[in-house]
Specification:
alpha+beta, Alpha-Beta Plaits, 4-stranded antiparallel sheet, 4 strands, about 30% helix, globular
């Protein structure tokens, strides 16, 4: 889950007030149980209390309003690419990924964007 090396597009983060927004969409496998998905959401929601570099952190299950949507969405903000990398590498995050996401996920999509 490591983001690519900082590119020239990350230069926008040097702007005063800019933050890095990290967006993740997780689609659960067809055989994933509600209990497994809830455990994944609970595990993700526990991370802000454990990782100081997280600015804001929203996690939620899809409402089921349209077919084909991802199962879980995460929107997090970080002050810098280094803070995002600290989050990605943090043992608490790695535990959630290894124990709660990988066994359940059919797919995971990520994007990082700069927003002021």
């Amino acid at each position: 889950m490591a983001p690519a090396a900082v590119s020239s597009s990350a230069a926008a983060l040097g702007t005063v007030g800019a933050v890095l927004t990290h967006i993740v969409l997780i689609t659960a496998a067809d055989d994933a149980t509600d209990e497994q998905v809830e455990a994944m959401v609970d595990g993700l929601r526990s991370l802000p209390a454990q990782i100081d570099e997280i600015g804001s952190y929203d996690v939620g299950r899809d409402l089921g309003l349209a077919p084909g949507n991802a199962t879980v969405a995460i929107q997090a903000t970080f002050a810098s690419p280094a803070d995002l990398q600290t989050y990605v590498d943090h043992p608490a995050h790695q535990k959630v990924v290894t124990e709660l996401i990988r066994p359940v996920a059919a797919s995971v999509s990520r994007a990082q964007v700069a927003a002021v």
